[in-house]
């Protein structure tokens, strides 16, 4: 079992920056891919960025060049640095972790943190 604790959301003006953090509890599971998703009101949850255990990065086109995902494996923590924020980035942001034990994979979600960008 893995528990995730998110922090760092808030209200910011357009053009501003925020940094999200998500710490995964210690576990016997191996942490593989870590990532961030978001869900705006009335919309489906969408991937924002992911980072594999080997450091491979993937970004949604809408955030490329503005957001940076990183991880600290020693702390089991993933970060999302968000710069040049836009009103359309407003959403609840969820941390996601893929954990593995043996041949089994498990998917865990954080509680979500609100990001609001005012124009």
Explain how this protein is built.
This protein is mainly β and 119 residues long. Helix content is 0%, strand content 58%. The chain is built from no helices and eleven strands. The strands form two sheets. Strands 2, 4, 5, 6, 9, 10 and 11 form a seven-stranded mixed sheet that branches. A four-stranded antiparallel sheet has the order 1-3-8-7, with no helix packed on it. A hairpin with a 5-residue loop joins strand 5 and strand 6. The protein is elongated, with a radius of gyration of 14 Å. The N and C termini lie far apart (40 Å). The model has no long low-confidence stretch (mean pLDDT 95).
Note the topology.
Blueprint lengths: L3 E4 L2 E4 L4 E7 L5 E10 L6 E6 L5 E3 L7 E6 L4 E6 L8 E11 L2 E6 L3 E6 L1
Parallel strand pairs: 2-11
Antiparallel strand pairs: 1-3, 3-8, 4-5, 4-9, 5-6, 7-8, 9-10, 9-11
Overview in brief:
This protein is mainly β and 119 residues long.
* Sheet having the most strands: 7 strands, mixed
Query: Strand content of the residues, in percent?
Result: over 45%
Any idea what the radius of gyration is? 14 Å
Distance between the termini: 40 Å
Number of strands: 11
- In terms of structural class, how would the helical and strand content be classed? mainly beta
Low-confidence stretches are none
Q: Give the integer mean of the pLDDT values.
A: 95
Query: Helical element count?
Result: 0
Helix content: under 10%
**How are helices and strands ordered from N to C?**
EEEEEEEEEEE
Shape: elongated
């Amino acid at each position: 079992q893995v528990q995730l604790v998110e922090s760092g959301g808030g209200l910011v003006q357009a053009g501003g920056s925020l940094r999200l953090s998500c710490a995964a509890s210690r576990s016997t599971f191996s942490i593989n891919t870590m990532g961030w998703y978001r869900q705006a009101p009335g919309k489906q949850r969408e991937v924002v960025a992911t980072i594999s255990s080997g450091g491979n990065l993937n970004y949604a086109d809408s955030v490329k060049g503005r957001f940076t995902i990183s991880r600290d494996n020693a702390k089991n923590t993933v970060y999302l640095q968000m710069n040049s924020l836009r009103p359309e980035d407003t959403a609840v942001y969820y941390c996601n972790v893929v954990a593995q034990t043996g041949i089994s994979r498990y998917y865990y979600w954080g509680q979500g943190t609100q990001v609001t960008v005012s124009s």
